[in-house]
Backbone:
């Protein structure tokens, strides 16, 4: 099974409780908890940038402690057989689920999984990849997806993005001061994917140069 979700080096565990400092946390947490305790069987996370996938991984890491869970990423998937034989799991997390749309096998397997989860009271949590504009060609699947519970993930503000930069660097044993954070936010793209990609580059460059993160080091990567 493909356990990765992001096209970045986020190999460090995304801990759900670490997200409590985000401005979106309270509302999203309430909605996720409500879904977990409800009779609803399918939830779709809809949002911008990587925060969709980030939250999905965090939610998985929270629930897997006490439940039978599986995390599957369909990002760039070509074989959709991974959507089969999931009977032993109570929570099924699928990142970039819309990668399966407009693919005959992908849609059929997702449709069957959807029906299976409903009949057997399994929880299916789907995360949408907003860079993929495909829509299901299978009418029954399309109608089911549109009829389900959705959580619209709000955009992150600059404080949220700074927090995630610090958090991801901390997992790598690195620290960053406020001046460096302000420099990044004023000179680099504020797209979350770009910012987290910069974290990876800073990690590698800092290790290569054996230096702490500084504005000088950052300039090498964004100017």
Residues:
């Amino acid at each position: 099974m493909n356990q990765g979700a992001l096209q970045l080096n986020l190999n460090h565990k995304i801990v759900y409780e670490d997200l409590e400092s985000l401005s979106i946390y309270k509302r999203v947490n309430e909605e996720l908890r409500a879904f977990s305790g409800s009779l609803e069987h399918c939830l779709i996370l809809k949002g911008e940038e990587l925060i969709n996938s980030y939250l999905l991984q965090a939610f998985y890491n929270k629930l897997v402690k006490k439940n039978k869970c599986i995390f599957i990423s369909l990002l760039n998937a070509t074989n959709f057989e991974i959507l089969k034989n999931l009977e032993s799991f109570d929570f099924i997390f699928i990142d970039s689920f819309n990668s399966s749309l407009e693919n005959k096998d992908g849609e059929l397997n997702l449709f069957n999984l959807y029906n299976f989860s409903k009949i057997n009271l399994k929880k299916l949590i789907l995360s949408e990849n907003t860079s993929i504009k495909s829509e299901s060609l299978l009418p029954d699947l399309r109608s089911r997806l549109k009829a389900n519970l959705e959580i619209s993930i709000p955009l992150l503000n600059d404080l949220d993005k700074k927090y995630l930069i610090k958090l991801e660097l901390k997992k790598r044993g690195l620290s960053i001061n406020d001046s460096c954070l302000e420099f990044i936010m004023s000179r680099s793209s504020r797209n979350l994917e770009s910012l987290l990609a910069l974290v990876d580059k800073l990690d590698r460059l800092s290790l290569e140069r054996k230096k702490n993160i500084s504005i000088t080091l950052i300039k090498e990567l964004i100017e």
Q: What stands out?
A: The helical segments are 25-36, 51-63, 104-119, 139-146, 158-171, 178-187, 192-209, 215-222. The domain at 16-153 is CATH 3.40.50.300 (Rossmann fold). The radius of gyration is 19 Å.
